[in-house]
Amino acid sequence: RPLEDEALRQQYHAQQEAALDELAVAHKTLSLRHDLRTKMAENRAYLQDYEREGEVNHRRNMAARRDREQREARFKATTLARGEQERERLRAEGRMDVAHDIAKFEATLQPEEAPGVISDDALAASTTETDAQFLSSLALRLPRAH
Asked: Which residues contact 142 (CB under 8 A, 6 or more apart)?
């Protein structure tokens, strides 16, 4: 009987070892599962934070872009308006210069009451003279420089 007792003791000991091994494997599996779930939760939280920061940054960037585009549009409009004002000023100056020059030119065309003015009778007499005679008679009537 001592052999049977020893066999039973070894069998009992083997069953305990097997149960402990199963328990260790189960514990290790649960531990790994818990670690994996914790890591996944951390990753999910990180991803949510990352997306939230991305949305905030996107909104901030879009607001900055809108502001920049508005400033550029105002600058462009101001630049165009100033350019148009300058062109209008130059056109007005040109019109004034032209009007002044026309007035000066017309003033030179106005007959002045000066000695040697050709009368209508003299012009009528010119039809009877040759061209050379008429020009020489006109030259005699022009005032001379002193």
From this structure: 116
Render pLDDT for 12-64 as a digit per residue (tens, 0 to 9).
999 999 999 999 999 999 999 999 999 999 999 999 999 999 999 999 999 99
Give the span between the Cα atoms of 35 and 43, in whole angstroms.
12
Do residues 115 and 143 lie in contact, with contact meaning Cβ atoms separated by under 8 Å?
A: yes
The span from the CA of 138 to the CA of 132, in Å, is: 10
Query: How many residues belong to the chain?
Result: 146
Checking 121-128 for CB contacts under 8 A at 24+ apart, the result is none
Secondary structure element (H or E) that encloses residue 132, with its range: helix 131-141
Which single residue is written with the structure tokens 């818990």? 34
Element (H, E) at 29: helix 2-109
Residue 93 to residues 25, 62, 98, 105, Cα–Cα distance (Å): 99, 46, 9, 18
